[in-house]
Amino acid sequence: MNCSCDEVLAMLHAFVDDEADESQCAQIRAHMAECAECDEIVVSQRSFKALLARACGCEEAPPSLRERVSMTRIRVEVTNAVPDDRRPDDGSSSPDDGPC
Ligand SMILES: [Zn+2]
Fold first, then answer.
1. Ligand 1 mean position to 42 CA, how many Å?
2. pLDDT of amino acid 88
3. Which of 16, 46, 63, 84 has the most crowded Cβ, counting Cβ within 10 A?
């Protein structure tokens, strides 16, 4: 019931997402017991996923932050009435502002 590292990696996402079936989970666990590398990968994937879930779990922060950013941009635009050479999206609209 030994599977290769490649097979484990192919099932990794399903396993981490709890979408793998019993036999897949059993294969991965058996492999993890013998392969420290894959064990580490699974553990780190799990904690990464948990971290992501926690970061995106706070539903309030990203939209309000985005709202504040766009309000600031509008205000800057209005008060300065900037011409085209000073675009307000310069540096203020990084993709980090959005949720995830
Ligand atoms: Zn392995």
1. 10
2. 65
3. 16
Q: What is the mean pLDDT of each run of 10 residues along the chain (100 residues)?
A: 86 92 94 96 91 70 60 66 64 61
pTM, full prediction: 0.52
CA of residue 11 to ligand 1 center, whole Å: 12
Cβ contact 45:8 at 8 Å: no
Neighbours of 74 (CB within 10 A): 11
Spacing, Cα 49 to ligand 1 middle (Å): 20
Sign of CA dihedral 94, 47, 6, 22: negative
Residue closest to 10 by CA, chosen among 94, 72, 86, 19:
19
Closest CA relative to residue 29, chosen from 18, 17, 42: 42
